[in-house]
Amino acid sequence: MTSITGHPAGGEGIGYSFSQPTAAPVKQHGFYPYTDNGGSTLGITGSDFAILAGDTRSTSGYNINSRMVPKVFKIGGDDETGEGAQIVLSVVGFAADGNALKERLDAVVKMYKYQHGKPMSVSACAQRLSTILYGKRFFPYYVHAILAGLDEEGKGALYSYDPVGSYEREQCRAAGAAASLIMPFLDNQVNFKNQYIPGSGEGHALEAKKAEPLPQTHVEQLVRDAFTSAVERHIEVGDNLQMMIITREGIKEVFHPLKKD
Amino acid sequence: MDHFPGTWGRPRNDVYGAYNPQYLQTTGPKTHTSSPAVTGTSVIGVKFNGGVVLATDNLASYGSLARFTDVKRLRVFGDKAVVGFGGDVSDMQYIDRLLESIDIRENYSSNGNMLNAKNLHTYLAKVFYKRRSEFNPLWNHVLVAGFDGEGKPFLSSADLLGTTFSAPHLATGFGAHLAVPILRRLFPEETPIEEISREQAVSALKDCLKVLFYRDARSLDKYSIAVITQDGIDLKEDEQIEGQSWAFAERIKGYGAQTN
Amino acid sequence: MTSIGTGYDLSNSVFSPDGRNFQVEYAVKAVENGGTAVGIRCKDGVVLAVEKIITSKLLKPGANKRIATVDRHVGIVSAGLVPDGRHFVSRARDEASSWRGTYKAPIPTSALANRLGGYVQAYTLYSSVRPFGVTSIVGGWDSEAELAVDGQVGTGPKSGAGGKVEGTPAGGPALYMIEPSGLYWGYYGAATGKGRQAAKAELEKLDLTSGNLSLLDGVKEAARIIYVAHQDSKDKEFELEMSWISSLDGPTKGRHEEVPKELREEAEKFAKQELEGEDEDEEEKGQGEQMEE
């Protein structure tokens, strides 16, 4: 684009007919301290048990880092075997933060037992976990945590958290990459959302099916179904299903294969 | 006459203008590493029956410049652990010295260095995680190879964010894209590592290095390879990729001597 | 000691009128009660040995080591107050590690001895501290090969200018002994502790100055000398503790290590044989006759 005087337009140097960048654009390669390692977790409680489960895939973008990286941990037990633990924590999101969080909570629960001579209650542990998460409110642990155990009455207890410590006790919760796939399934199958008693009435008189605690075998099957379905639709979920079943007898850990594609 | 000796010997203001003291300013935001400078590319490793093999090439790049061509990126710790470094070379040197000081301290006791590869990996991951949490990362992705507390072969990864994972075969950087699929095909993850021989593992890594040399622009055909067994470490640092075939280049524009 | 009891012996940092620091001299007395320690500088390495008096049958044999590793290539043994020795070793380790931090290379044994000498000397200057109750023998092997800088990554260009002079001798064995005053010298053979006189007499017979004694013979001699030095306190049982540092192509590859059990036992067997032989010789030759070797 030359001007009518025939001189190059623009103030500087050679007159290009298009705008020329004076230098290569400043490439700022800042340091971002988080990454997403994918995967999903899920917890459901019953009248005398709680189940926490997660897949074992670890991802970086489209890469599978490993097919066997557990996301569900026993808290307050032996370092190697987890023996003696009564509380289970699952973490999904940024795995390094998840590990750091797990180790901190584990240390806290152990110290509680050494100092008070009795195991920490799930409700106390739940509150403590919230405090730990909120303590890093301005540089959060980038994880969705779920804590499970048996409460003081022996009923299944499940607490779910956001990354900065907001928490509530729930019947069931799905977290992580496939949370949006699993949670509606749980709403329907555990809390019987959108289920009505057939023939109970017309329109608004139709009576909703009331939620009640489910038997353990049924819940185990729900968990497996939830994950096999999530694997089909989410690329970050797969490889193996890790399940921790907390009952009065202790914690049972089982693995099931999932699709590896 | 200028009566202030402090100003003698300085460039004259009437000639050069007043000195701009801004350059002397030392205050301002504290800055940390926000990108690596001299870097190494992939590290690859496989477990086999009775040990682990680890390999890297010997190149340190400065951006796209192949800057140093005899860089040893496999570092030995104690007598049964090796760390393979990808990423920033100066951070690698820092970590290497850190590990050396630990080894010296461990040797104060007559039992010698009792830390195994698993312990070393846990430690390194915590160092990485601490530094990323201070926003002052050590810009590396490493593989740690050796044995765990029960004497079983150990191979695990740790990176600048503190992320860790372990698998029968691992690769960092470009290797995660190019080497892992080859290794997964050769040694499917469900086959126990007891069925993989040392020779198979070594030759698989050599194949991977070759593919990486073909396709990773920041790689070199000179490499280091370490075989860690209970008998010790067999480290070779001046190897050459053999059996290259560039026949395919004839059919691709930009390679070789074709003119059209 | 004419000025004893005149008050000049009560404090560090105060000279007696005849120019002595009595606190230092008393520290030497503490050393003279300690188990004998010796060091031998051999052709291809250094040996350290100490006579560890068994003070209780309840102590585990072989435990409670008295020879310490300071850096890969340096060891220290001391005679005198054991806790003072431990603190001294701790300082030596800090010095060695700080040297590495600065120069990215192992500390030369001479430099370590110099710094430790300075450190010990400082404890003779102030009234608020007492001198070290140890005399320490520092043994080291300074690498004879060109060493890579700690963390070094490559070997540099394979051709072209390097500026290196070929065949320049470098490194080798080093042995120093540091006394409570801070005084230190380099030695061919050093001895301290209760049996130092006998030990020194034996060391002098070894012709160490010619530099012909091999490390393996040095180990045997060190064991023998400790056994000889123990003759004067035969009523007490003792354990022999030995460490060595060889050249890079030797058995320890330039590192300070404990002498392997088998070798130590062999050396002890040799030492015992030599002692028995000596006794017989003395009986044959009769009283008053001097032994010659």
Overview of this structure, please?
- The complex is a heterotrimer of chains A (261), B (260) and C (293).
- Chain A is α+β, with helices and mostly antiparallel strands and 261 residues long.
- Chain A has helices at residues 95-116, 122-135, 179-189, 216-233; strands at 40-45, 50-55, 58-60, 63-66, 72-75, 87-93, 143-150, 156-161, 167-169, 172-176, 240-247, 250-257.
- Residues 1-15 of chain A have low confidence and may be disordered.
- Chain B has helices at 13-16, 89-106, 117-133, 174-186, 198-215, and strands at 38-40, 43-48, 51-57, 60-62, 65-68, 74-77, 81-88, 140-147, 153-159, 164-166, 169-171, 222-229, 232-240.
- With 293 residues, chain C is an alpha+beta fold.
- A five-stranded antiparallel sheet of chain C has the order 8-1-2-9-10.
- In chain C, strand 6 (172-178) and strand 7 (184-186) form a beta hairpin.
- The longest helix of chain C is centred in the C-terminal third of the chain and has 25 residues, at 261-285.
- Chain C is globular, with a radius of gyration of 21 Å.
- Chains A and B meet through strand 4 and helix 1 of A and helix 3, strand 10 and helix 4 of B.
